[in-house]
From TrEMBL:
Pfam families: Omp85
Family named by the database record: Belongs to the SAM50/omp85 family.
Cellular compartment(s): Mitochondrion outer membrane; Plastid, Chloroplast outer membrane
UniProt entry keywords in alphabetical sequence: Membrane, Plastid, Plastid outer membrane, Transmembrane, Transmembrane beta strand
Coiled-coil region(s): none
Keyword Lyase attributed: no
Organism: Hibiscus sabdariffa (roselle)
Protein name: Bacterial surface antigen (D15) domain-containing protein
Segment forming the signal sequence: none
Bilayer-spanning residue ranges: none
Bilayer disposition of the protein: Multi-pass membrane protein
PANTHER family on file: SORTING AND ASSEMBLY MACHINERY COMPONENT 50 HOMOLOG (PTHR12815:SF18), SORTING AND ASSEMBLY MACHINERY SAMM50 PROTEIN FAMILY MEMBER (PTHR12815)
Domain Bacterial surface antigen (D15): 77-354
Amino acid sequence: MQELLKASQIVNLRLQALEIFDSVKITLDSGPPELPGTANVIIEVVETANPLSGQIAAFTKAEARYSTVEGSLKYKNLFGYGDLWDGSLAYGYDHSTELSAGLYLPRFKGLVTPVTARAYLLSQDWLKFSSYKEQSMGLSLGLFSSEHHDVAYNIAWRTLTDPSQMASRFVRRQLGHNLLSSLKYTFKVDRRNSPMRPTRGYAFVSTTQLGGLVPDNRSLRFLRQEFDLRYAVPLGFYRAALNFGVSGGVVFPWGNGFSSKPSSLPERFFLGGNISPVCALGGPTTLWGFKTRGLGPTEPRRHVNDGTADPSGVDFLGGDLAFTALADLSFDLPFRWFREKGIHAHVFACAGNVAK
């Protein structure tokens, strides 16, 4: 009976996660007398009265000085497969914009994994840090997804421009059009008791991305590998725990003459910003103590003699090789009010570097 109750809870959660039912009720009863040791399981569901839903929200990450306004519309179960159709628009106060439309099929025919597809238009403004704007138009397909494995394919037409006309020599060489066609595989294991404040357990993420899967001379050919390892050790007092982390990544081009080609600027690693590396899991992306993209190789911007250019301005170029390490001690404060509000203390140290 306990196994049946546990299985019923899992089924209930999975049905609720489909977002197409207003209510799910599972009733367990003993089976007929002529079939001893059996049970009747009755599942009653009420489909959503209105298949169309929408939301609009504003998100702010004060530590990263970043805010966005996002709106989305969803249409549920159009073809009766639990399918979710959605369209979304996101605008960031750093002048980034994303318009996308997607389809999610949790189960389709005999497939055992969800099917996802998303078409998108993306615009990002990196003029302040690296003197370029990025516009992408593409399609992303989720090919396989399970508890520990994820495989996705992405194809996009990408354009890099410099409206300021002040980019450094390296950035100017990267401007123009290119085609991104890549296959991405992610392996993830997370055995921590909390992703926000882990006090025990471990986590490991490895991501491999291979670009250049179409026979086109404008296709970006590169191999990118990232990993992130975390381990938390409880100390036994005040919920204190030591949390250790190490992450790294490397990217390099492949194909004819790869040894003399620089890696693509958007695919490079950039470190900096004030997002907590304790909560970030996925690769070398954050490092306390530096501004956004503020660590690693730089190159002076082109000086324009019009009285408006900053002669000391530089472009942050990122790197092909990145490495970060983290040591963190977290513990409860000796006041009940802080513990009830979830406020705790951290003592931390981090290190990292980005190189060509």
